[in-house]
Write a structure and sequence with these properties.
Elements: H1 4-24, H2 29-54, H3 64-75, H4 82-97, H5 104-107, H6 110-126, H7 143-156, H8 160-174, H9 207-213, H10 225-235, H11 239-248, E1 252-254, E2 261-263, H12 267-270, H13 275-299, E3 308-312, E4 318-320, E5 329-332, E6 339-347, E7 354-362, E8 365-372, E9 376-377
Antiparallel strand pairs: 1-2, 3-6, 3-9, 4-5, 6-7, 7-8
C-alpha cells in the first residue's frame, strides 16, 4: 500500500507536470523556460516519492542522475528513459543557471516522455496507474469512497456542479443521514421500530414537527449542532472544513439507503461564476476531511465486527423498549422469523432474568429493543 507522504509527493509531481504542460504549449521563451523547470521539478518530486516507497537511501544524493542509481540498486530494476530525462535536466540547468531558453523543438516531446516515465514506473513499482493515484486510496472502502471517486472524475471532466453534488452525497452518507427524521413521520416509537437511535434533536422526533416544518425532502435532515460538534472532535473531523463544504454544496436527500438521490439545486451554489474554484476547494477539503477521519478511526482499537444471532422458540415474540417485561412493547417478531440479530445479553432492570439486546436489520425488517430470555431457544 502507498503511504500518505508518498501519495502527496506524487500529487505534487502531477500538479507540477500539469502546470509545465501549460507553459510548454507557448512559443514565448520565458514560458518555455518556466515549463522545463516545472517539468524537471515534477520528475524530481516523483523520483523522491518512488525512492521513499522502495526505501532507497537518497540522503547523500547530490545530483539528479544519482536518483536513478539509488532506486535501481534498491529495486534490482532499471528505471526507463534515463537519457531523455537527463536531457531535460540539462535544459533546466541552462535556463536556470545560464539564462538560456530552450528551443521549441527541444521541448515539444518532453511532456509525452515524462508522462510515459510516470506511467511505466507507477505500473512496475507502485502497481497502479499514475493518473489514478489519489488520497482517496487511503480511505476505507465503501460508498463514501466511491462517491468521492465519482466527484474526482466529474472535476477532471469539467463537470463542476456534479462534483459539488457528489461531495455533498459523501457528507450525507457519512454524517447527515444519521439526522433523518422521516422515520418519525408516522408516529411510531423510534420510527420503524427504532432500528437505530436517531441523532436528530428530540424536538424534531415526532409527526407534529414533521407536519409543521418539513416542506421539501431535504427538510427531513435536522442537525443537532451541539452533538455534531462533539462527534467531530471524537472522530477527528475538522469542523471548519465541514461547515465550509456544507455551505458551498447543494443539499441532498435519499429515501432509505438505496433510494434515488434528491438534489436541492440552489442557484447561488451552482452559479458558473467561481464554480471551478468552489469545486476545486470542496473536492480537496472533502477528501482530506474523510482521510483524516479514517486515519483516526483506524488507530482506534475495538473488537472485530460481526453479526450474532439467537434462535426464537415461537413467532410474535414481544420486543421491549427496556430490559424489563413491564416496559413498553415496541414491536413483535413476525410469523416465519426464527432468528434475530443480537448484540449482547444483560440482566434485567428489576433483576428478573436475562435479556437479549436485539438490533435486527434484514430484508426491510427493522427491530430494536430487548427480548426476554424465556423466548430464546438455546
Amino acid at each position: 500500500m502507498i503511504d500518505a507522504k508518498t501519495i502527496n509527493r506524487i500529487l505534487l509531481a502531477r500538479r507540477l507536470y500539469e502546470l509545465a504542460c501549460d507553459h510548454l504549449k507557448s512559443e514565448i521563451d520565458l514560458s518555455l523556460s518556466i515549463g522545463v523547470n516545472l517539468l524537471q521539478d515534477s520528475v524530481e518530486a516523483f523520483l523522491i516519492a518512488i525512492a521513499a516507497h522502495v526505501q532507497a537511501d537518497i540522503s547523500k544524493t547530490k545530483t539528479f542522475d544519482k536518483y536513478f542509481d539509488d532506486i535501481n540498486k534498491e529495486t534490482g530494476k532499471v528505471l526507463p528513459l534515463r537519457t531523455r530525462l537527463n536531457d531535460l535536466n540539462k535544459l533546466r540547468v541552462n535556463s536556470k543557471h545560464h539564462g538560456l531558453a530552450p528551443a521549441k523543438s527541444e521541448v515539444i516531446d518532453l511532456p509525452i516522455i515524462v508522462k510515459a516515465f510516470f506511467e511505466e514506473v507507477s505500473s512496475s513499482l507502485l502497481e497502479c496507474h499514475f493518473s489514478s493515484i489519489s488520497l482517496i486510496d487511503l480511505m476505507r472502502d465503501g460508498e463514501v469512497k466511491e462517491l468521492l471517486r465519482q466527484a474526482q472524475a466529474y472535476f477532471k471532466n469539467g463537470q463542476h456542479e456534479e462534483c459539488l453534488v457528489a461531495c455533498r452525497k459523501a457528507i450525507y452518507v457519512r454524517i447527515e443521514s444519521s439526522y433523518d427524521i422521516l422515520p418519525f413521520a408516522d408516529g411510531k416509537p423510534g420510527g420503524l421500530l427504532g432500528i437505530f437511535p436517531s441523532k436528530a434533536p428530540y424536538y424534531a422526533r415526532g409527526p407534529e414537527y414533521v407536519e409543521k416544518y418539513v416542506k421539501e425532502p431535504t427538510d427531513y435532515i435536522v442537525l443537532d449542532y451541539e452533538k455534531i460538534e462533539i462527534e467531530f472532535i471524537k472522530f477527528g473531523i475538522d469542523s471548519q472544513s465541514f461547515w465550509n463544504i456544507w455551505r458551498l454544496t447543494p443539499d441532498v436527500y435519499r429515501y432509505g439507503s438505496e433510494g434515488d438521490w434528491i438534489v436541492k439545486r440552489e442557484f447561488k451554489k451552482v452559479d458558473n461564476n467561481g464554480l471551478l474554484e468552489r469545486a476545486e476547494y470542496v473536492l480537496d477539503a472533502t477528501i482530506n476531511l474523510f482521510v483524516s477521519a479514517d486515519k483516526k478511526l483506524s488507530s482506534s482499537k475495538s473488537p472485530d465486527y460481526k453479526n450474532y444471532f439467537c434462535s426464537l422458540k415461537q413467532p410474535k415474540v414481544p420486543i421491549y423498549e427496556k430490559a424489563d417485561r413491564n416496559s413498553k412493547v415496541v414491536g413483535t417478531t413476525p410469523e416465519g422469523l426464527t432468528e434475530v440479530f443480537v448484540d449482547y445479553t444483560v440482566s434485567g432492570l428489576k433483576n428478573d432474568g436475562l435479556y437479549w439486546k436485539v438490533s435486527h436489520f434484514k430484508d426491510n425488517l427493522y427491530l430494536w429493543g430487548y427480548i426476554a430470555d424465556e423466548y430464546v431457544d438455546q
